[in-house]
């Protein structure tokens, strides 16, 4: 369970990006977060992996307060989270395989079955056998699939994606939305922000709408 309790985020210059946001997300939910540009979506998502910390209030995951986590504990937190953030770009000078392998290297020791995990993640996103290719040779949609493979290679129980379909044409965007749905069906909790809620509406997700740093609407699934 993810809990936000009266979370406030003030950036330097006193800009209030989140003005006191509270909600709970249960295990296995599919949550679509929308809101105008600057509403605070990225800020909210970044609080879950402790990339941003609340100015006030608390964020917890499965009972652990992540808003005040020691720096040394953060890698353990992130090991259980899959992240597809706007800044999580691919390394263009490394193969698709190496890009997806990256989180496995970061966690310290390579699992014995690391290569198998990478292959399984690539297969999961429809890129089986493409590991040797280089990212610049892939379409935008395929690059996004690599980023998603990289996010799921650790088999996280929670997957967070910040506008994963931005810059993709509608057919690719629908494919990517379908991928998230398939992960959700496999039991993964999904929190995805989008400018286009319609991409997910057929699955009747929980819809949360942010406006000016406040939770304006929260439609249960
Ligand atoms: N590191 C930062 N320092 C100062 N202000 C910031 C920082 N990050 C975000 N902001 C400001 O906080 C507000 C919320 O930003 P945020 O990126 O969370 O919104 P968003 O809803 O994700 O927007 P978009 O849809 O454009 O990505 C914006 O006005 C932004 O300029």
UniProtKB/TrEMBL annotation:
GO terms for biological process: amino acid transport; cell division. Residues 2-220 form the ABC transporter domain. GO terms for molecular function: ATP binding; ATP hydrolysis activity; transmembrane transporter activity. Keywords: Amino-acid transport, ATP-binding, Cell cycle, Cell division, Cell membrane, Membrane, Nucleotide-binding, Translocase, Transport. The keyword Nucleotide-binding applies. Signal peptide: none annotated. Belongs to the ABC transporter superfamily. This is Cell division ATP-binding protein FtsE. It comes from Pseudazoarcus pumilus.
